[in-house]
Amino acid sequence: QVPLVESGGGLVQAGGSLRLSCAPSRRTRITYIMGWFRQAPGKEREFVAAVNWSSGNTDYADSVKGRFTISRDNAANRVYLQMNSLKPEDTAVYYCAASPSGWGTRDFSSWGQGTQVTVSS
Q1: Which residues, at least 6 apart from 84, have a Cβ–Cβ distance to it below 8 Å?
Q2: What does DSSP say about strands 33-39 and 115-120: parallel, antiparallel, or unpaired?
Q3: How large is the average pLDDT for residues 22-47?
Q4: Helices and strands, counts by H and E, the chain
Q5: 3-state helix vs strand vs coil in the chain, percent to 5
Q6: Which of 72, 108, 111, 112 is close enough to 99 for a disulfide, judged by CB 3.0 to 4.6 Å?
Q7: Could you please report the per-residue DSSP string of 20-52?
Q8: β partners of residue 18
Q9: Which pLDDT value is given to residue 28?
């Protein structure tokens, strides 16, 4: 497991943008599938987006397609989630996660502490 640290959350008005960032908390080169998940109050944690670090292949939840973009910076050893056209229903705690191999939610074995994103209407 690789400890992960997220940053970039905050309060934004509907229609606004935020960029989340995630990196390992210790000196570890990322070689996994990196993903973002979110959990809203009273709801289960849900998948948002993921990227294969090696191939660059990405996957998105239908609810964020066309609005969110996941990207990786190999030199900085970071993964980002650019969130545009934010909606109040995007309000949640966002978690960065790493999977050694598979794309399924249960494959993600390393998790960050989460960063709060609040979108006001």
Answers
A1: 17, 67, 68, 69
A2: unpaired
A3: 89
A4: 0, 11
A5: 5, 50, 45
A6: 108
A7: EEEEESSS----SEEEEEEE-TTS--EEEEEEE
A8: 83
A9: 76
57-116 tens-digit pLDDT: 999 999 999 999 999 998 888 999 999 999 999 999 999 999 988 888 899 999 999 999
On whether the CB atoms of residues 20 and 34 are closer than 8 A, the answer is: no
Closest alpha carbon to 32 in 93, 107, 114, 92: 107
| Nearest to 30, CA basis, from 66, 67, 71, 61 | 71
Handedness of CA 2, 76, 33, 60 (dihedral sign): positive
Residues constituting the chain: 121
- d(CA 87, CA 93) in angstroms, rounded, equals 14
